[in-house]
Amino acid sequence: MKKAEYKVVSGTNGFPELEEKVSKLLNQGWKPVGGIGFNAGYPYQAMAKVVTVSTAEKANSNKNKQQLSKTEETV
Fold first, then answer.
1. N or C: which end of the chain has fewer CB within 10 A?
2. Domain tally for the chain?
3. How confident is the model over 18-39, as pLDDT tens digits?
4. Distance between CA atoms of residues 15 and 9, nearest Å
5. Statement: residue 73 has pLDDT above 60
6. Domain, as residue range, for 49
């Protein structure tokens, strides 16, 4: 089974920091999603990658979903 992972990285010390973080993630298989955004003067970049989930992780994920459903039913 495959799943998508998503994160947003920021360069709180400007572009050099953002470039370093994005470069590291690119080398780990992450891909940029969209362009650079800015908030409060800081640059941000969304990153995503698709990973393969092992059978054990899939079972754990299903267990967590079931627990979440039970919690939602009681709310």
1. C
2. 1
3. 999 999 999 999 999 999 999 9
4. 11
5. no
6. 2-74
Sheet order of strands, 2-10 included: 2-10, 42-52, 31-39
Q: What is the C-alpha to C-alpha distance for residues 12 and 44, in angstroms, rounded to an integer?
A: 9
* Pure H helices in 10-54: 15-27
> Distance (Å, rounded) from C-alpha 2 to C-alpha 19?
28
Among 15, 9, 13, residue whose Cα is nearest residue 31:
9
Q: Which residue has the higher pLDDT, 62 or 41?
A: 41
Provide the percentage of residues in the chain whose pLDDT is more than 90. Answer: 68
Q: What is the DSSP letter of 53?
A: P
R_g over Cα of the chain: 17
Q: Which two tokens stand for residue 65?
A: 């979903």
**Token pair 């003067």: residue:** 41
